[in-house]
Write a structure and sequence with these properties.
Shape: globular
Helix content: 25-40%
Length: 471
């Protein structure tokens, strides 16, 4: 058979571009096809509110991108990516006081008044390079660093609510754990807090100059240097529409892949994908502001990311409500204030704000007032700064990016079972029953986040299976 390309990648998110780069580095001819008219998937930026205000449409702050073992091998800075490290990576205001994460572990522990934080976190930060390579791949693998991984696993498998005694440390840990979208009492919810915490100390929580789009643009620029091609505005509805290729990799959700390949997939695999659970969704608001947020705590005014939700008990109650299909009156709100550090995001003297809270999958409830009440709680006068707002419910998010099914930004629930079997139980879960066809999205290990590792691992599987290349 004559092939148009060695490989075709469906979807131009960070995972799809990482897969394409891995294949192109191995000498394959590669085409990336993207349904939207702009590339990037969840790493895109646009003027959503007013002219001159540049907003990130989904991902905003990128500790996992900065720490990605694959991204670190690429010349992304030469290709246009410039990381900005805020003075304080993360702040978390409370009614009295503020918790915050600094790059230095001991300085963070001192500010929290809890030296046990340093005792717990310092060994993980020391072993960041080893742990990141172990954690950002399928859980079913032979570890290169079994002792380091076992030490991490013994703590990470526990609920986030089981750590620390002081209110500041518990709040900081709860906010990081809430990125899991799990109830904080759930098994392994602590894993997310440890990963994000040690990443914050090891590589920071940076933001990309000129918006998250610059991550996708840098990846695309490097792919083109390698000879790869990208076509936007080309939606794939079935396998027959694809160019002929020896391998096809789908940077789509498990459910979207099942729809596209429905006529070819065996019933057993199709049923397994149907049982793969979606996670909660998000309700997102982007703001154009006349001035910086008037946070009561000065540390929040120097932070790239602010977790708004109060104490661990308050955050746990909100996340528990979402898991039960409810909409909390006082939601946990993730806030990114990129324009404090990146002058390209807004006109001089004005600012942008990125915020979202968790909601049940496919929620239609407008959470705008609840989000703003939470921010106003810790920043009196916030509403007076608002020039314009752009809100996105779960349906709007899915319309902008089909991978965000029901507003799920992680490609599937990140509970322990679905971290092990993502989306199937296999040491190589990227393979599908169809010869030469692979899944490389966040529905595969290691899951959500901008790190490219799902695509990189899927491409390596294709290189072994189809191209007889061993790495």
């Amino acid at each position: 058979m004559n092939f148009d390309y060695d490989a075709v990648v469906v979807g131009s998110g960070p995972n799809g571009l990482a897969a394409a780069i891995t294949l192109a580095q191995a000498g394959c001819s590669v085409l990336v096809v993207e349904a939207n008219h702009s590339l990037g998937g969840s790493a895109r930026s646009d003027e959503l509110t007013l002219p001159g205000f540049l907003h990130d449409t989904c991902s905003a702050v990128h500790p996992l991108a900065a720490g990605s073992p694959f991204f670190k091998t690429l010349p992304l800075q030469r290709c246009g990516l410039d990381w900005i490290q805020p003075e304080i990576p993360l702040a978390h205001p409370l009614e009295e006081g503020v918790a915050y994460l600094r790059r230095d572990v001991q300085e963070t522990a001192d500010s929290l008044g809890e030296n046990s934080y340093a005792a717990v976190m310092r060994p993980f930060v020391r072993d960041w390079e080893k742990l990141s390579s172990e954690l950002l791949q399928p859980m079913l693998h032979f570890p290169e660093h079994p002792i380091v991984l076992a030490r991490f696993g013994l703590k990470a498998v526990r609920p986030a609510t089981k750590f620390f005694r002081g209110e500041l440390a518990r709040a900081l840990f709860a906010g990081m754990a809430a990125h899991s979208f799990l109830p904080l009492e759930a098994t392994a919810s602590a894993a997310f807090a440890f990963v994000l915490g040690m990443a914050g100390h090891a590589v920071g929580w940076p933001i990309p100059r000129n918006g998250s789009q610059s991550i996708a643009n840098a990846l695309a620029n490097y792919l083109r240097e390698l000879g790869g091609k990208i076509e936007t505005g080309r939606r794939v509805e079935n396998l027959a529409e694809l160019p002929k290729a020896r391998a096809v990799l789908f940077d789509t959700s498990a459910w979207d892949f099942a729809r596209i390949a429905a006529n070819e997939l065996p019933a057993g695999y199709r049923n397994r994908l149907a049982r793969f659970r979606r996670g909660p969704g998000v309700f997102k608001i982007d703001y154009a502001l006349s001035s910086p947020i008037p946070w009561r705590a000065p540390e929040c005014r120097r932070a790239g990311t602010v977790h708004v939700g109060g104490t661990m008990d308050e955050i746990a109650a909100g996340e528990r409500a979402v898991a039960n299909g409810e909409h909390p009156e006082c939601p946990f709100v993730l806030v990114a204030q990129q324009s404090l550090f990146d002058e390209t995001r807004a006109p001089r003297g004005q600012h942008t704000l990125w915020a979202y809270c968790h909601v049940p999958n496919e929620s239609t409830v407008d959470m705008s007032d609840r989000i703003e009440r939470q921010i106003e709680r810790f920043a009196p006068g916030f509403r007076d700064c608002i020039l314009a707002r752009h809100s996105s419910n779960t349906a709007a998010l899915e319309k902008s990016n089909a991978n965000l099914s029901g507003g799920d930004i992680n490609g599937g629930a990140a509970n322990l079972a679905q971290l092990i079997a993502r989306p199937i139980l296999s040491p190589t879960p990227y393979r599908t029953p169809l010869r030469g066809i692979y899944l490389c999205s966040a529905s595969t290990p290691p899951g959500g986040g901008v790190h490219g590792m799902c695509g990189h691992h899927a491409a390596r599987a294709a290189l072994r299976d189809i191209f007889n290349q061993r790495h």
